[in-house]
Amino acid sequence: MPRTSLKRARAKLAAADPALGALIERIGDWSVSKRRRGIPKPDAYGALLRTVVGQQISTKAAFSIYQRLLALYDGETPPPERLLESTESELRGVGLSGRKVSYIQDLARHIIDGELELDRFDELSDEEVIEEITAVRGFGVWSAEMFLMFHLERPDVFAGGDLGLRNAIMALDGLDEPPTPEEAVKRAKVWSPHRTLASVYLWESLRNNPIS
Question: What CA–CA distance (Å, rounded) separates 124 from 146?
């Protein structure tokens, strides 16, 4: 999003929600690209592959395993065909669990079979992208929402099931406990059509003010 558009989006969020406006004022200039911490943006296939690798492990461990995976293929993102040619033993050797091996191979099959047309994602609505991604084994709604936010950079996505966002709302509103996913989605409606930007500020607020 261009800097001028970001400035307008921040102003609209602050006008719609003074509490979030105060948080934006405290954090300052922030965006989806800064949330990626300078990590180069991969292609759509690489982004989905990296999503599987990073499931339920730390960022540091995910990075290490992903780099070892790339090393199997001369440092490049493995084409789906080459990924399917690899044995389970080879893939588990880089640190992937057997379940994750099955997930990335299912991703490769969906792409080869044409069931997952990544080149068409820009033409699809958020809901249609979520439907296509969650048809692949190992990809839930949260993974699809993260892809919408950080790869496609869709402006109005909110992941109600994300505990970090719910914890941030708890702190923002002075609640005694995190809202439910449904309550979080309802709370986020005031931030539309800039819920993605609101989300990155909420995540950053946790980094600055961690909740024990």
Answer: 16
